[in-house]
Amino acid sequence: MNDSDLYEMRAERLKNEALKAASDGDWDTAIRKGSRVPASWDVWQQMPSVNPKTMPKEAVNKILDLLERTGKTEDSGFIYHVAHSPVYNMNLDTDTIHRLWMLAGPNNQMSRDALQGHPHFKITSHLHGPGHFWSDYEKKVFPDHFAAIEAWKKGKDVKLTDHRGQTGSSDRWIHVLPHMEEYAKASQKAILEDPNYEKKRSGSKVFVKLYRGVGGNYGKAIHNAFDFNHHTREADLGKKFIVPTAIFTSWTRDKDMAQLFAEGRGDIPGNVKDGGVVMQKWVPIENVLHTGEHDLYAGHPKVHREELEVVVHHPNKKMRVEGKDLFFPTNIKGDYGTVYDKGTDRGVKFEKGRMRDYAAALGVAAAMLGTSSPINMDQDKLSAEDIAQVRAAESHEPHPNLEAIKMVESSGGRNVAHEQVEHGLNAGTSAIGMYGIMPLQVQDTINHDHQLKHKYRNLLDYDPVVDQEKIRLYLTNNEKAQNEIANSHWKRLGDRFDGDEKRMAYAWKNGITGALHATDDEVNNHPYVKKYLSYKKMLEMEDKKQPLGKTEQELEHRIKNIRRFISVDPESANIGPMITEMIHGGQVHDLSNFGHFTHSSFIVGPDEDTSWLIKIEDHSSRPAIKSAQYGLQSVREAAFYEMARQVFGMGDYVPEAYLGEIQKRVPNTDRVEYVPAVAIKMLPKNFMLAAELEKKRPGAMEGVLEPYRKSGLVHKMAAMYAILGDADAHGKNMMTDGKHISLIDHGTSFADESFNPAEDSKVFIPYVLRAKRLKDGMTQDTKMSLLPTIKSPDVQKDVRNWIMSISEEGIRNVAGKYNVNPEPEIQRLRALKQAVLHQDPAVAINRFWVYGKF
To answer: What is the C-alpha separation between 357 and 256, in angstroms, rounded?
Structure first.
């Protein structure tokens, strides 16, 4: 008998024992044993039919608790059977009937209809419904809550998607909306009559003083944004801004409670030390929707009464925040301020100073209030990574980087059969689920996160070795729990290693202690870290993909037929297998995301920074240059790079290019064909076309090129273009990051003896010479007078010596390797060497490009 059979027998025994206990009326035993039966067996739906007597409301609510905790309320048939069994539901009270109705969800309308016919569905007080709404909100926030408030205010049904991509509908709470206004008025009256609330009047309006505390990544980011110095206690709080909000947010009347949330007692796991921030605000009493402190009717359910929560409505979904109302609730002592302790007024005194990153403060505050970006802001926003950290911290939604962890650990959740660990703390156990978390790590993470400890306390009762299958069974049937535990652990690692992703990934594999003792080289070169970074980049690239147009769809079709890249140069033999592995790994992308290269090409690699441009030979696309009529463009690309590197010493200014062949399947056949191609190393994504930079910032390229002119590099590049007969060196074939330049697209190089810029209108004077200097219609003499020169005698000498050192033999060797006729290049080299013996080398080079001769 194998393990699977044993597992089935054990589960069947537990199910039968649970149903037997239910039949006998021993509901505690029935529920305890039923909770150990696999969720997919849905033992709960059978319980209402095994006992002829009424199922007590306590048992119904305990089962609902379990279904909610495991996220299976809509998957189980339990609610349906209770709703349609009058014998079982007739004695249930209003609270339980309403709970069943709400948990049934809009997709289980038959159950809802049955429950709405129950005599206890009609509430006895108009405040009961809203009371249960806010109690449900205090337990856990869902988009339904925000949709319901919007529906109440707009007077119509609302469906929405929140910033985490979760959808919600007002349908769940439609029966309580008519009474929300009455409930809000009762909440406002209770606060007005409570002397513990600090209030003030302005005209006819009454305001109440409230506090909101945040910590962890929020607090840390706000500290940085406001130049808060932990040593000197200085910060710049003279700023004010408007941020968008959700339609409501949660506050408290007690700044000590706000401080506890800021220091780690809120809904934010893994808060960093001393990262808390408390915000205070005078709120119009008319904007109060709910008080978590006061009993508005007999039996009013309160989940966290001690938090003294007040829910505030934001009619325009925005609010003003002033820096003077932000303070840092830690025990502070120092020359710059008095002590701040719980229960006292703020004692920190702030000096004026310049804020480093006002935009970051706005972004953090906006995310903190439930939205993704501030309004009325011209500065740069928070980075996507910062916003992702903030959102994940508040919502328990898995951090986007966990997708890369998931790919490394389980191929995206497809392979969760992890090998058993034989050594160390985890010996005798194997990882669990899509994120590959060890049983011991599951428990450690829960113990470090008070909210998870409340939700998944049952997992702490198991021995991580003896009972690992129980932990595994629970988590594999509860994807939500996996996500929350993985996210909490990732947050903890981020706080421990200050956001160092490489060390965080290393710690995911080797533990926090291992990561603390590892050197930078050990971390950077670890295979797990490399895989993580590779998958992360690939996933980021996939996120950027746009819908394909007709031409791009044809290109996509061609890409699907590509099998491998074969390098034809023994010196670059490793390039072929590397590119082929990326092709087989699905890291092939069309050019709609990159935009600067020929459309007969494609990209292979994890991202723009570490990828290759594959130019496939297109026999229908010949250069229009008279002197460059023949020869494959892919050959010329590779030959130009090798010439630049080996002969001219200019390899740093030309992207790597290696000649090869693409093996591709002939559509609708079993045959393959081989097409000439060249693999060109992609430039970093911060590079842009020189012509585009000049268009955006007129005069910018003159500044970029000035250091190159002074050093003589401009004229060395122009000389290389001339010797190698490259006729297409315009502004869209040079790229720059604003400091460095790179010369691209050399498919029209190696022109023949007739190459003459003065006579062929399709030959461009190189952009390195002409940028911002020449215009159409100028005479040759005018052009000559405007081209850059070399003023330094030492630089003139250096350029002359460089020209004289260019080897004819080197040109012949490289040209012979690529079957290129070297004679035109050697003739032009000899002419240039002869010219610079008697004149300024810059003048000789300029003369060639203007007059067609040195």
So the answer is: 28
Q: Which helix (H) or strand (E) holds 14?
A: helix 3-23
Q: How distant is the alpha carbon of residue 626 from its chain centre? A: 49
- Give which of 714, 715, 696 is closest to 705, Cα–Cα: 714
pLDDT at 264: 57
Annotate 309-325 with DSSP letters as a single string: EEEEE-TTSEEEEEGGG
d(CA 147, CA 649) in angstroms, rounded, equals 65
Distances in whole angstroms, Cα of residue 535 to Cα of each of 405, 410, 412, 528, 607? 8, 12, 10, 11, 10
Token pair in block for residue 346:
């703020």
59: Cα separation from own chain's centroid: 43
Q: Which residue has the tokens 């009256």?
A: 189
Distance CA 729, CA 723 (A): 13
What pLDDT does 790 receive? 93
Residue 56 carries which DSSP code? Answer: P
Cβ partners under 8 Å of residue 592, min gap 6: 545, 546, 548, 549, 552
Q: What is the C-alpha to C-alpha distance for residues 772 and 699, in angstroms, rounded to an integer? A: 7
Name residue 169's beta-bridge partners.
159
pLDDT given at position 221: 62
Report the candidate in 758, 749, 690 with the shortest Cα–Cα distance to residue 722: 749
Question: What pLDDT sits at residue 771?
Answer: 83
| Closest listed residue to residue 443, CA positions, set 460, 424, 431 | 460
Bridge partners, residue 681, by sequence: 612
State how far the Cα of 167 lies from the Cα of 381, in Å rounded to an integer. 26
Q: What pLDDT is attached to residue 393?
A: 40
Task: Give the 3-state DSSP-derived string for 450-491, with helices as H, strands as E and coil as C.
Answer: HHHHHHCHHHHHCCCCCCHHHHHHHHHCCHHHHHHHHHHHHH
Tell me the C-alpha distance between 356 and 618, whole Å.
52
pTM beyond cutoff 0.85: no
Residue 657 pLDDT: 92
C-alpha distance from residue 38 to each of 14, 168, 414, 460, 477 (Å): 10, 28, 20, 19, 8
Q: How many CB atoms lie within 10 A of CB 198?
A: 11
C-alpha atoms less than 13 angstroms from C-alpha of 766 in its C-beta half-sphere:
30
| Strands 309-313 and 248-252, sheet pairing | antiparallel
Rounded mean pLDDT for each run of 10 residues along the chain, 854 residues in total: 67 88 89 84 80 78 83 76 67 78 71 75 66 85 89 86 76 83 91 89 86 71 68 67 79 85 52 68 94 76 81 87 72 29 28 29 29 30 40 53 87 81 84 92 87 84 88 87 90 82 92 87 91 74 41 52 79 81 74 44 72 74 42 84 94 92 78 83 87 86 92 96 92 90 90 88 86 82 92 94 94 87 94 93 94 89
Q: Which of 187, 388, 373, 438 is nearest to 297 (CA)?
A: 187
Burial 678-696 (b: 16+ CB within 10 A, else e): bbbbbbeeebebbbebbee
Q: Give the N- to C-terminal CA distance of the chain in Å, as an integer.
A: 90
CA distance 401 to 102: 34
Cβ contacts of 660 within 8 Å, gap of 6 or more: 565, 566, 567, 568, 569, 575, 576, 676, 677, 678, 679
Q: Please give the pLDDT value at position 310.
A: 95
DSSP 839: S
Question: How far apart, in Å, are the Cα atoms of 91 and each of 94, 123, 499?
Answer: 10, 15, 55
Report residue 242: phi and psi, to 5°: -110, 130
Cα separation, 515 vs 506, in Å, equals: 6
